[in-house]
C-alpha cells in the first residue's frame, strides 16, 4: 500500500529532472532497491502505469536494480548475507551486525529524449 | 537523441525534508516527541491510556492518533487525560507521513506541551519507511504476536530507538521465548532500550515512565 505515495514521489523526482534537462519524453527510470527496503517492484509498476499516464513519463520503463542485503559482524567484522530467520555471523557465531547494504531506495538515473 | 541523466535522489526525500521541518518546530517549542509503531492490537492505545495518568501533574501531554478511520483512539487518549488530542484519519493510507503530522501540529499550540505522543497506524511495515520528525521511534511489541517478529520485520525492528514489550502478563500462557525474541532484536539493533511491561497489571511501567520523563526533561 505504501507504494502509492512512493510512486508519486518517484514520478515527481523524474519529472523535475526531465524538465530541468528540457526533455520531451522520459523513456526509462533506473531505480535502486535494496533487499531490506520493504518495497515491492510489481506494486510500484502497478501504480506507475496509472499515475504516469498523460505525463511525459507515460510508458517509461521502470528498471529495478536489486541490491542484496549485506551485514557486517560487530564482533569479527565478517561480512555476510543474512539467512532466513537468524542473523548470526557464519564465521564467529555471534549476533549483532550493522547493515552495509540493502536499505537503498534511490532513483539513480533517468533515460530521456 | 536519447540520453541518460544522473539523478541519485532518495525517493522519500520530500517526506524526509518535511520530517526535518516538523522536528525543527518541535525543537523550537521544546516538545519531546515519540512515534509509537506496532501491529494492530499490540496495545498502542492501551499503552497511552496507562501512561497518561502516570504523567499527570508531571508532564503536559498532547496525543496525535493516526488511523485509517474513526476517532476511537483519540477519544480514548482524551478520556485518559491527554491535555490535547488530535485524530488524523489517513483515508486508507497504511501509515502516517510527515505531511499528516504537519497538519496535526498546525492544530496544536505546541508551547502548551512538554511531550507529544504520536500513535501511528497499526502496521509493522510501512511506518518504518516514513519519518515523521519525532525524536524517538518506539515500537510496541506484544507477547501473543509471537517471538519471531524481529526476524520477520527486520526493517522495523532495527530502526527503532526504544522497544516496549507489552502483555508480559500473558507469558505463562503463550509459547513466547523471551531470549529468542531479544536475540533477534539485539542482532540488528544492539543496545536498544527495552521495557517489558503489562498494560493490565501495570508491571514494568516505572522504567517506561522514567524514560519518558528523563527524555522530555532533556528536550
**Rg of Cα set of chain A:** 18 Å
Radius of gyration of chain B over all CA atoms, rounded: 18 Å
Oligomer: heterodimer
Number of helices of chain A: 2
Looking at the structure, what is the overall shape of chain B? globular
What would you call the structural class of chain A?
Answer: alpha+beta
Mean pLDDT of chain A equals: 91
Beta-strand portion of chain B reads 15-25%
- Kindly state the mean pLDDT of chain B as a whole number? 93
Under the CATH scheme, the architecture of chain B is 3-Layer(aba) Sandwich
Overall morphology of chain A: elongated
How many distinct helices of chain B? 8
Write the layout of secondary structure elements.
The complex is a heterodimer of chains A (113) and B (219).
Chain A: H1 3-20, E1 26-34, H2 41-51, E2 61-67, E3 70-73, E4 79-80, E5 97-101, E6 105-112
Parallel strand pairs in A: 1-2
Antiparallel strand pairs in A: 1-6, 3-4, 3-5
Chain B: E1 3-10, H1 13-29, E2 32-37, H2 44-55, E3 61-67, H3 72-79, E4 84-89, H4 98-106, E5 115-119, E6 136-142, H5 149-152, H6 154-158, E7 162-166, H7 178-188, E8 193-196, H8 205-218
Parallel strand pairs in B: 2-5, 2-6, 3-4, 3-5, 6-7, 7-8
Helix pairs in contact in B: 1-4, 2-3
Fold and architecture overview:
The complex is a heterodimer of chains A (113) and B (219). Chain A has 113 residues and is α+β, with helices and mostly antiparallel strands. Chain A contains two helices and six strands. In chain A, the strands form two sheets. Chain A has a three-stranded mixed β-sheet with strand order 2-1-6, covered by helices on one side. In chain A, α1 (3-20) crosses α2 (41-51). Chain A is elongated. The model of chain A has no long low-confidence stretch (mean pLDDT 91). In chain B, α7 links the parallel β7 (162-166) and β8. Chain B has 219 residues and is of the alpha/beta class. The radius of gyration of chain B is 18 Å and the shape is globular. The mean pLDDT of chain B is 93. Chain B has one domain (13-218): P-loop containing nucleotide triphosphate hydrolases (Rossmann fold). The A-B interface holds A 1-2, 4-6, 9-10, 12-14, 17-18, 21, 23, 27, 30-31, 36-39, 74, 82, 84-88, 95-97, 99, 103, 105-113 and B 1-15, 92-95, 97, 125-126, 128-130, 148, 151, 154-155, 158, 183-184, 186-188, 190.
